[in-house]
Structures are given as structure tokens and as C-alpha cells.
Amino acid sequence: MPGGTSVRPHGGQVALRGVVAMDGPSGTGKSTVSRRLAQAFTAAYLDTGAMYRAATLAALRAGLTDLASDAEIARVATGACMKSGTDPAAPTITLDGEDVSAEIRGPEVTAFVSAVSAVPQVRTELVARQHGLIAAAVEQGGGIVVEGRDIGTVVVPDAPLKVYLTASPEVRAARRGRQDAKAGRQTDLHVTLADVERRDRLDSSRRISPLYAAADALVLDTDRLSADAVLDRLRALVVERGLDG
Ligand code: DC
């Protein structure tokens, strides 16, 4: 498990102390910069979206659809045996011992994940698991970059650095299209844009832990910022706030 002052599990030059909370909708470059930031500072990395996706895959494998009740979804999703790897160089997630890192990015999971992640019992269970992983990473002075939708608002409201990445739906859909093409998935830009907008609506309007920027988050619009530029900004912030070392 990452963390600890004397052990430097993921290489890198300087250590991070504490939690960096990275929130924002999909397609803002969150995953890329979160992983690179963790690598730059010898920190762990947790992709909480992957946990909601794995819970969704468990629900799909149990034959559930969006017609299922919250209770049915909660029973399957909270009982799922999933394990999240926190190495930013190779983040993995397993379901019943099987690596499902690629499968959770497929269209079936993407279409259903907003519904599963809106179920209160699912959130309670996954947030508890996230707290366990975060505590393990920061014990003995270690650090972790945690990405999601509610990290700075709900999961770690006292995080010493909170960042909220945004970008226009068109730019985010184009980025998603490129990621899909890279992963060998054929997609239509109009369909991807409609899906991005649908998920924004669902994620921002749900009753429990909706997506919004914490009042004390630094908001960065990435429409015209490269990943390198965002990363430079974040590295400087980590140093300014005295979280390196
Ligand atoms: O980051 P992502 O696209 O892989 O996230 C998948 C879904 O999971 C997203 O539609 C919203 C949900 N999610 C959430 O509700 N809370 C989080 N902390 C992370 C993701």
C-alpha cells in the first residue's frame, strides 16, 4: 500500500504530504493530470470513478438494468468484491479478482454508471472504502491524489489542496472521442457529446453528493490549457502550500 515517509513506492523525486482532491466532469483531463501529479510527487493515486464503474459492472453482470430498484442496485454494488490499486503508473481495479480496468470504460457501463452512482447506499459504501484507501496512503506522512466528483466537497472536505477542472462539453466530447479511438472503440462525436451532456445533467442534479466545485477549490478551465500547463500549475500549488517534502 502506498504511503509512508521512508518508503517511496512509486519512484519520483519529491514526496507529497496529504490529499490533493481533484474534481470535475469527465473529459477535463482529470485522470491524466492526477496520475502525472501523483507520479511527480511520489504519491498514491485513487480513481474513485473507476470504483463507481466497477460497482456498475457488478450490477450489469448480475443482470440489472436502469429499471432495477435502488435496493437491488445497492445489494449487488455494495456486495461487490472490488480492489483498487493506487499506483499511478499502473492503476488497476479488480472485480472478484479479475482485472476489469478496460471493461469498465465500455459503453454499457458508461450508460448505466450515473444511475448506480446516484444510489445513496452505493455512495455510502464506496466513500467508506475510499476513506480506508486514503487513510492507508497518508499514514506516516504519505500523500495521495484522489480524483472524482465529490472529493473536495464530501470525501475529503478538509483536503489541503482542492482543484476543480472544467472544460466546455464540445472539448470534453472531442477528448473522449480520441480516448475511445485509442482504446479501439468506434464512436460518433454527436452521440458522445449527447452522452457527456446527459451525464453532466445527472451527476450535477442528483440529490446525494452532486457534482459542484467546493467553495475553496481552485477552478481551472482546461479548454485552452494543455495537460503540461495544468500539471505545471498544480506542481507549483503543491509547493506553494507546503505539501511537498
Ligand atoms: O470519472 P468517471 O467518468 O470515470 O466517473 C464515472 C461516473 O462515476 C460519473 O458519471 C459519476 C460517477 N462518480 C461519482 O458519482 N462520484 C465520484 N467521486 C466519481 C465518479
Helices and strands in order, then pairings?
Blueprint: E1 18-23, H1 30-40, E2 44-47, H2 48-61, H3 70-79, E3 82-84, E4 93-95, E5 98-99, H4 107-117, H5 120-138, E6 143-148, H6 151-155, E7 161-166, H7 169-182, H8 189-205, E8 218-221, H9 227-240
Parallel strand pairs: 1-6, 1-7, 2-6, 7-8
Antiparallel strand pairs: 3-4, 4-5
The protein binds 2'-deoxycytidine-5'-monophosphate (DC).
2'-deoxycytidine-5'-monophosphate is lined by residues 26, 48-49, 52-53, 113-114, 117, 148-150, 199, 203.
Structural class: alpha/beta
Separation, N- and C-terminal Cα atoms = 19 Å
CATH superfamily: P-loop containing nucleotide triphosphate hydrolases
Overall morphology:
globular
Query: What is the percent of helical residues?
Result: 40-55%
Whole-angstrom Rg: 17 Å
Total strands: 8
Strand order of the largest sheet: 2-6-1-7-8
In terms of quaternary structure, what is this?
single chain
Q: What CATH architecture would you give? A: 3-Layer(aba) Sandwich
Number of domains: 1
**CATH class assignment:** Alpha Beta
SS strand fraction: 5-15%
Largest β sheet strand count, sense and barrel closure: 5 strands, parallel
The CATH topology = Rossmann fold
Order of helices and strands: EHEHHEEEHHEHEHHEH
Bound molecules: 2'-deoxycytidine-5'-monophosphate
Which spans have pLDDT < 50 for at least 5 consecutive residues?
1-12
**What's the mean pLDDT score?**
92
Output the number of helix runs.
9
